[in-house]
Write a structure and sequence with these properties.
136 residues, alpha/beta, Rossmann fold, 5 strands, globular
């Protein structure tokens, strides 16, 4: 997981935030986790951070600015457009899948109900990104 890069999690659900924090630790992902609760906060964070995150884990259903709106802004910014984005959502809506892939996401994953399955999903993301070449 780009060992020196932060992980940006855009998630508004407190339980899901805690689940991500716990699971990341248990699957030995030690990158700093930065949590923002909606797309507006995520864009504000990116505008003000010194070091861009190595990956963004993005929920779709958030207040103020949802994940699809966030992606639209993210991909228009040249400095941010290469940050890998994995959608972690409960949405099985085909339109959400199509729209997010059109906007250049790296993956679309339905949040598993069980905690062990959630850890397996994060392990798969970790393994993939450890093997991937990155533009920065």
């Amino acid at each position: 997981m780009l060992s020196n890069k932060k992980i940006l999690l855009l998630e508004d659900d407190v339980v899901d935030i805690m689940t991500n924090q716990r699971a990341l630790k248990q699957v030995n992902i030690s990158n700093e986790l930065v949590v923002q609760e909606n797309g507006e906060q995520g864009l504000n964070y990116l505008n003000n951070c010194d070091d861009l995150p190595g990956i963004i884990l993005l929920d779709i259903n958030m207040p103020k600015m949802n994940g699809i709106e966030f992606l639209g802004h993210l991909k228009k910014n040249e400095a941010w457009s290469q940050i890998p984005v994995v959608v972690l959502t409960t949405s099985k809506d085909q339109n959400d899948k199509l729209e997010t892939f059109k906007l250049g996401i790296s993956g679309y994953m339905i949040k598993p109900v069980g905690y062990d399955d959630f850890k397996k999903m994060l392990t798969a993301i970790k393994d993939y990104w450890n093997l991937s070449e990155h533009p920065y």
